[in-house]
Amino acid sequence: MLTLALETSTPLGSVALGRGDELIAECALAVRATHSETVLDEVARLLSRARIDADEIERVVVGAGPGSFTGVRIAGALAKGWCHARDLPLYAYSSLRAVAASAGGDRVCALFDARRGEVYGAAYAAGGLDDPVVGPRACSVDAWIDGLDDPAAWRFAGEGATRQRARIEARGGTVLPPFLGVPRAAALLWLAERLPDGRVADIEFWEPRYVRSSGAEREAERRGGSR
Length: 227
Fold this sequence. Notes:
- There is one protein chain.
- This protein is an alpha/beta fold.
- The protein has 8 helices and 10 strands.
- The chain has helices at residues 36-50, 69-86, 95-103, 141-146, 159-163, 165-170, 185-194, 215-225; strands spanning 2-7, 12-19, 22-30, 59-63, 90-93, 108-115, 118-124, 134-140, 155-157, 174-175.
- The chain has a 5-stranded mixed beta sheet, with helices on both faces. A 5-stranded mixed beta sheet has the order 8-7-6-9-10.
- A hairpin with a 2-residue loop joins strand 2 and strand 3 (22-30).
């Protein structure tokens, strides 16, 4: 099945094309606010280089967050629009799970920078092929490590892990190289071939998993509560 994958939950996003376990093409792109056109342009270039027509795409798989609110919304909206317009199935997987899948092996804890001293995280006992044993959730890295049974038995990946390397290593954890911490569109293709439960049942009402409300939403709640 010819599949288009979109992943824009972090500043370094990617788009990919695959058929079964064959990765046809993948490219990285910088994700910036309001730059949904950039992603569409990159998809068009990718299809052109692979000599594939857009109408040949049979399904779309998307990184469902958490991560940058703007980035997650970009991929989510593009994926939903593409599937609606062409009546295609949509698959969605956590962007943290994509990192765990790329890292491979057992006991991978994926952490993204959530700002304000917090991380988005999820811990996968079987490299992304199982449901997370902890998370996804947003909290301080210390609270996150405290929630693991044995921090020294886990490998940590992602921008959040890289930023918090000293704290993680002080607790005995292993921080993987930065290139293994980027959620890749190719990893979403790999997951879609192995985890059919990622198929979205109702595309119209599907929304990415942000884990926490946006800064604007939190500010609105604060103002509303202070009245």
